[in-house]
Structures are given as structure tokens and as C-alpha cells.
Amino acid sequence: MTHDLTFVDGHFYAGGRWLPDVDTLVVRDGRIAAMGVGLAPEGEVVDLRGRWVLPGFHDAHVHPVQAGLEMNACDLSGAADVEGYLAVVAEHHATHPADGDGGEWLLGGGWAMEAFPGGVPEARLLDAVVGDRPVFLPNRDHHSAWVSTAALRLAGIDTSTPDPSDGRIERDRDGRPTGALHEGAMELVRTLVPPADAAQRHAALMTAQAHLHSLGIVGWQDALVGEGLGMADSLDTYLDALRDGSLTAKVVAALWWDRARGDEQVADLVARRDRAAAAGLDAGSVKIMQDGVCETFTAAVIEPYLDAHGHATSNVGLSFIEAADLARHVQQLDALGFQVHLHALGDRAVRDSLDAIEHAIDVNGRLGNRHHLAHVQIVHPDDVDRFGALDVTANAQPLWACLDDQMVDLTLPFLGEVAREQQYVFRSLVDAGAPLVFGSDWPVSSPDPLEGIQVAVTRREPGSALEPLLAGESVPLELAIDAYTRGSAWICRRDDSSGAIEVGRAADLVVLDRDLLALPHDQIASSRVVRTYVDGRLVFEA
User: Fold this and answer.
1) What angle, 0 to 180 degrees and rounded to 10, lies between the N-to-C axes of helices 323-335 and 266-279?
2) Is 308 exposed, middle or buried (0-12, 13-18, 19+ CB in 10 A)?
3) Which positions ≥6 away from 127 have C-beta within 8 Å?
4) pLDDT digit of tens for each residue in the chain (542 aa)?
5) What is the pTM of this model?
6) How many CB atoms lie within 10 A of CB 418?
7) CA torsion sign, 317 to 322 to 328 to 332?
8) End-to-end distance of the chain based on CA atoms, in angstroms?
């Protein structure tokens, strides 16, 4: 049980403003017991010295164990170009030499496509640094991997290897694999990589949790809990951390839907949900990945992708599950009380996902399971109003809603005219009555909510001089804050206990070093988290 404490001399946020009649907040047993001016202190006194307090952030779509594994391995996320990546690889290779006992692989990830010509890295670059060592490095969005020649050889990938139905092998003009694998093609190598053991997964979760707490994040929905995309199942990682008390965050586990299987896995998902619930973990969400990403032309789109000359191709991306099957799966899961968390990035994937949820409503009625579509990069104009009509939540990653190198060079030139004008249409969705929640998809991109909030409001990458991306789709600051607090707490089914500073709610709080509401919008991300509290427990202090 958390001890009592009183916050004094602070500014507290609610309803889009700093509350004028509150400078003191009393916490008993982890919950906000009283708010007002000059209240008598109880327990430990925390002098905020005039600082600003928001509800703790919730990340609605994140991959902490995956991120932690990469942070604890060859982490490329801190480098910005090819030379930087190779320097990190060289250092890791030198400090973690192959041991010949299963440890010969060099693992990690976090590179950005825009750092390479055409977004495609090559094995020869790795070979020059690590020699004949197998290397497997997923990029930031985990839809592609950079591999060495040794890794290709071990996997038997050569000119005669066909592309899998759900992926693509990058090749030169003679058909030789060049060292980049997209979507399902990654599995050709990833199946050879030794999986992380229980101790490594626990260490990864702790690394990630500490980082997320340092950014004011008090809870999240883990968007891949199961054996998918090369990840070892992290359900037991969470359950063990919950039992030993090391899990301080509030977590929803989205159980992975294996697209290589069908209806027969539903019973397994129910059993896993029940086992988690018995231990005190919410695993009542199921993650279905419906398509890929635009940069590799694997997002499922309505208009075909264009080639480098602006001419239409025959490629409309990948639908990992046929529309009729998707509708059946979503209806089954909805009937069993699962929340369905759909990766839908292209407009065809969005449409198929909305159709599936509409089918579930037609069969089951409205059960209130809070289904949501993650990423929603392209939403066709005909489908915008359907979010509100079907009560489907847009689970958006706001940091992506800007013109950056990836958007300018690898995305927009290859999309049809309609799709180019429907990028991350946050304001249109809100105006159509769609609930809007925010997440980061870390390690795909930064998990810092303040950066995401700034981009949602400005539609510009922090520090960029480029024009806003569809400026009319920006959202007001208070709505962006709400999407990362009350909104994301709602999608994680904690709306009765977290996401707002109100008497009776949990003392899930983030203390900032400056007045977020008074800052110019292009400086929001300059704010820094001073402290983070979960249930009144200090989990981070700068």
C-alpha cells in the first residue's frame, strides 16, 4: 500500500487549463483524496516549487520488450546516417565478439530507411565491418531488416529463392539478394536467430520501463504479446514482473494474432487471457496486423502505387488476411469480449478493418469492446465518417504526421493523388466523432509524448523548416494532451482510474519543468519531465 503524501505549490491540469483554485493535492493509498488551496498536508510533503503537473501519459501502441532488447544490444536508434550506423555496429562487434556457442549473431536494430539511397541498405556495408559474421538488424518500423552476407548464406537465400507471399527480398539487376528483407521475407533469416531467454526479456522490460517512466509514461498497451515477428512470447515476462513487484507500469497486453493460423487459435487466446487475468494482468486485447507500410509498398492501398516516374503500377500492397476472413475473426473475438487492435496503415487496410468491425456489430450488436485501428496513415474520404458511426477509435502515432525525409522521399512520390491528401487526418476524424488516442509504436519512433503532442499541434517535425503536412489536420493542444492521457487511458480500459487529475482517481502524475500551455507550439517538446508518479509512487526523478 502506497504511503500518503501531499503535493504543495503546484499547478494542476484538468479540462484544458491549469486549475485556478488548486495548488495542493493530497494522496491517500495511491489515489487523489483532495484538491484545493492550502490544504493541510498529510504524510510526506512534496514541494513542487511552482511546477506544472499533468495526468500521467499512457502509450496506446508500443513495443517495450522489443525496444528494450534493442537498447541492450546493438542499438542504432541514436545514429542518424550510414556512417553512424556502421560505427555503432563496429563498436558492438568489437565489444561483443562472436563466441562460437550460439553467440555468433550480431543483433539489435533501429536504423531509418531514409538514411540509405532508396531506403534500402546493403549487406556489403555490414560485411566490411564484421567480416563473415551473421547480422540481423530490423529497421525502426520492423517491417524490414538489414542482414549480412553470412546471414543470407545461412538462410540459403540466393537468386533461386522466391519471394514469400507476404514479403519481398531486395535484389540487384541480376537477381542476387542485396541484404534487405521486407515483411515476411525477414522470417527467412529471423527463424535462425537465437531467441532471447527469460532473463534477457526481463532485463529488456526493465530497461524499457525505466525509459518510458522518464518520459512521464505511466502505462501502455503492448501491441505484440506472443510469438510474432520474431519476438519470443513476453506474456510470462510481464507476469513474472508483476509477481515480483518490478512491473510499476499499468499494462494491457495485446495478444498476437498469428496470421499463419486461423480460427483454431481463438481458444488459445481465451486461455491466455484467462491465465493473465488470474495473475492480475489485462490481456483482453488481440492485435491483428492487416498490412505493411508505405515505404516498402506493402501497405494495402486502394489506388496502386506509382513508380519512380509517377506512373501507376500493378502493386496495391499486401493484405495479410483476406477481407472475408478478417471479418469472421473480428466478429468471433468481439463476441468473446476481446478488444481488437488492428494494424491498418493503408486506406484499403483501413476499409477492410472497418468493414470487419461493422460485420461484428451486425452479428453481435454493439458490445462496447473499444476496437481500434492503429496507425491510420491513409484514410479514404469515404471512410472518415465511418469511425464515428461505428465508434471505432483512431489509435494514431502523431510523431509521423509531418514532412520528414521518409515522407518526402519514400512515401508521397509513390502514392496516388487521393492518398497523398489523406495523410494522418486527425482533425477530420475527430470532427467525424472518432475517439482519438495517441501512442508511439516505439521502437519505431521516439516514445516521448511531448514530441508527439508538438507534431500533432504543428504538423511539423521538431526543428524542421519544412511546411506543415496538411496543416488543416492539426489538433488543438488540449485535444493532443487528452489523446495521450484520458484518451489512451480509455483505450487501455483505465478510464475509471487514470488519465485525469480528479478526486478518486489514481495519483498517476507527470511533473514538468515549464508551463506547457504558455510555450509557443513549436517549443512544446523542449519541456522536460521532472518526476513521474504511478499510484502516488515515485518511479522517476530527474
Assistant:
1) 40
2) exposed
3) 148, 149, 150
4) 557 999 999 999 999 999 999 999 999 999 999 999 999 999 999 999 999 999 999 999 999 999 999 899 899 988 989 999 999 999 999 998 887 554 699 998 889 888 898 889 999 999 999 999 999 999 887 889 999 999 999 999 999 999 998 889 999 999 999 999 998 899 999 899 988 899 999 999 999 999 999 999 999 999 999 987 667 799 999 999 999 999 999 999 999 999 999 999 999 999 999 999 999 999 999 999 999 999 989 999 999 999 999 999 999 999 999 999 999 999 999 999 999 999 999 999 999 999 999 999 999 999 999 999 999 999 999 999 999 999 999 999 999 999 998 999 999 999 999 999 999 999 999 999 999 999 999 998 999 999 999 999 999 999 999 999 999 999 999 999 999 999 999 999 999 999 999 999 999 999 999 999 999 999 999 999 999 999 999 999 99
5) 0.90
6) 15
7) negative
8) 24
How many angstroms separate the Cα of 511 from the Cα of each of 36, 48, 469?
A: 18, 8, 31
DSSP state of 229: T
Residue identified by cell 501519459 is 57
Q: 212's torsion region: left (phi>0), alpha (psi -120 to 50) or beta?
A: alpha
Closest among 405, 312, 377 to 117, alpha carbons compared: 405
Contact 30, 509 (CB under 8 A): no
Specify burial of residue 408 (Cβ count, 10 A radius: 0-12, 13-18, 19+): middle
